[in-house]
Structures are given as C-alpha cells and as structure tokens.
Amino acid sequence: MTSGKTDRRLGEFELIAALFAPLSRNAPGAFGLTDDAAVLVPPLGHELVLKTDAIVEGVHFLHDDPAESVARKALRVNLSDLAAKGAEPAGYLMTLLLPAWPDMAWLEAFAGGLAADQAEFGLSLLGGDTSATPGPLAISIAAMGFVPQGQMIQRAGATSGDCIFVSGTIGDAAGGLAVLKDAKKTHTSPELVARYRVPSPRLQLGRALRGIATAALDVSDGLVADLAHLAKSSRVRMVIDAAHVPLSPALQHLWGSSADAISRAVTAGDDYEIAFTAPASQRGAIIDAAARCGVSVTEIGRVEAGEGVVLRDQGGKDVPIVRGGFTHF
After folding, report:
1. Which of 48, 151, 293, 315 is the most buried (most CB within 10 A)?
2. What three-state secondary structure class fits 273?
3. CA separation for the pair 138, 226 (Å, rounded)
4. How many CB atoms lie under 10 A from the CB of residue 44?
5. Domains in the chain, please, with CATH?
6. pLDDT per residue as tens digits for the range 202-223
C-alpha cells in the first residue's frame, strides 16, 4: 500500500503497518502491503469482476457518523455491486484521503470496522494508497470478486414480458438520513439510521440469481433511477406498480404510505438492494432462493416494449415522478 506524505498521527508507513497491513494477512498476493502492487489469481473457470465506488464526508456519510460504520459503508457499497452481478468477493484496494481531524482512536475504530466486515464477507485488503487532503474525508474502494465464466448478471438482458423484482425494502436509508438531519429530533428510528449507515449487500441472493435473473443492478441512486439504467441497457420500458413497492414498517411510521411517500421512497438513494428482472416462469425459483438466503424479495412490476420507467397507481394511472433519483452533478 503506497503512501503520500503526511506528518500527522503515526508516520504514514507506521500507520499502514499498524492498522492496515493486518487486514491483508489472509491474502498472500498482497505481500503484507509492502510492495507497490498485488496479485490476484481467479480460480479455474472463473472470471474477475471489478467495481469501484467512493464515499465522501458530507455526501455519503455525516461527519459524526461512527468510524466503524463509515468503514463498513465504504466497503459494503462496493460489495453491493458485486452482489448484483452474482459475484463472490475476493479482495479490495482502498484509497484513504485524510483531513486533519481523524485521530488515532478514530482510525483504529475505522480499521476495526473493515476487519469485522472482512471476516463476515470473506475478503482481504490487497493494497491501495493513503494521502492527506485539505478537503473532506474520502474513501475510495475498488472491490474484486469472482464469478463462474459467462455467468455475471449484466444490466442488458431484460426482455418484454419479464417481471421486475427487488430485494428488501425501499427508502429506508433516506428515512435514516432524514432522522439524523432533523435538528428538532422529532423522530427517532434506530432501524432507519442503521440502514443509512451500514447497508446490507445481498451477496448470497446475488449468487443464487445466476441463471435466473435476466438483468440486475444494485439500487444505489434510487429505484426509479437505477431501473432506468436497466431499461436503457436492455432497450425496454420498466413499469413499477406503486402499491407493490415494499416499504418497511419503520419508514411507513416516519413517512406514511401515501402516493407521495412511495414516490419519495423510489427516488431516494442508498438502499443497496438488488433490482432484477426474470421471466414469470422463474417466480418459484426466486421465492425458493429468497427463502434460502433469508432475504425478502418482492415482485414490483413488469417489463414492456418501449423505453424509460413508469410508476403506476392501482388505477393504472401514471404517478408523477418529480425527481429521478440521486445524482452527483
């Protein structure tokens, strides 16, 4: 793990040796983070799946979020993409851009969060970079996984007549952020806050969907926005039945279950669930896969000829979508 110059806390190389080299001990190809690069060899008959995502203070997490949850979110948003591709996690690279404020206690807790998730999901740190920054704290992770050759679930592949499914519940993370930003502390909801701070990558479900799903991606920018990506790649239209969008009891307590609440939920980011399409004939296999994985899966609509995404109410009328989803620019 190479390093830019900083004179804070421990020295840079001491910091790497103390906190981050132990995270590579189960990856021989990481060489204890003492080299400039790492080696990762896919198992026979497998392909390497690559993904990178960054999280930035003030954009993806709050300044006073616990260090452990910041670390876990940084890793899990990448694992969520691997999950939607049906991949098995193998390792990751991390670039850590540090402003002045994180002290050694914060960094130790951050490394502890990574260690806990490595143990849970079975992967190791392979390398990366550390540097000082005058800007906000930022963590960029490039995650790598393996998938049997030719079995990665792509965005392109949905066809007219397919059904649309989504795992878990939608809008919880946005609800959690709203709770955290509520200066008057009108509501408290540990469940929603946890969904915002520490998403749950659906890795087991993603692997179970190989050969079943025709197209898939993780829901990070909002259900409508991400289904629009599937629609564009597959050259079809996605029709969402508003009444079937799964909202958690905690979110319904916070926002209600009106058309406005559903519209708000489907355009909110940070869900990190899997949205996917599959033929109607695969409903039974999907129900079985969800049960094996302990994850709820809901059928929320259908694929039609055309383009774009439509949200429809129970009467068959289109529900206006004021904003399409989260975007950085």
Report:
1. 293
2. strand
3. 24
4. 6
5. 2-148 (3.30.1330.10), 163-312 (3.90.650.10)
6. 999 999 999 999 999 999 999 9
How many C-beta neighbours within 10 Å does residue 197 have?
21
Q: What residue has token string 């005058």?
A: 134
Q: Is the pTM of this model over 0.70?
A: yes
Query: E-assigned strands of the chain?
Result: 2-3, 46-56, 88-98, 124-132, 138-148, 163-167, 215-219, 237-241, 273-278, 297-304, 308-312
Measure the CA–CA gap between 329 and 324, rounded to whole angstroms. 13
Residues in the chain, how many? 329
Contact 127, 23 (CB under 8 A): no
Integer Cα distance of 130 and 141 in angstroms: 12
3-state secondary structure of 304: strand
Query: How does the average pLDDT of the chain come out, rounded?
Result: 93
- Type of residue numbered 129: D
**Alpha-carbon distance 323 to 264, whole Å?**
9
Question: 326 pLDDT band (50/70/90 cuts)?
Answer: low
